[in-house]
Amino acid sequence: MITDVAAQSRLPDEIDTGRHNYDADRTAAQFVLDVAPEMADVARENVHETAQRLDPGAGVVYVDHDPPRLPMTAYGAIGRVP
């Protein structure tokens, strides 16, 4: 498991909730917010909620290669997917 390199998939989590990330992610997220504070709003934009607001029948598939997040993602999806 690589936790000493920031992962693109964990940056929005760090900016939004800060629950599932590592030191490298927190450092990278802080750098992004220092350079572009408006990215906090972008990170909070939830892809599937946005898609379903535009088209209530829309489905979203998340594809990523970040093995440490797999259990967290599967757990987070329980009860949220119709």
Description:
This protein has 82 residues and is an all-alpha fold. The chain has one domain. Helices cover 50% and strands 0% of the residues. It has five helices and no strands.
Our Rg estimate from Cα atoms comes to 14 Å
Mean pLDDT: 76
Number of strands: 0
First and last CA, distance:
31 Å
Strand content: under 5%
Count of discrete alpha- or pi-helical segments spanning 4 or more residues: 5
- Look at the helices and sheets and give the structural class: mainly alpha
Explain briefly what this protein structure is:
With 82 residues, the protein is mainly α.
Element layout with pairings:
Blueprint (H helix, E strand, L loop, with lengths): L10 H6 L6 H13 L3 H6 L2 H8 L15 H8 L5
Descriptors:
single chain; 82 residues; mainly alpha; 50% helix; 0% strand; flat; disordered C terminus
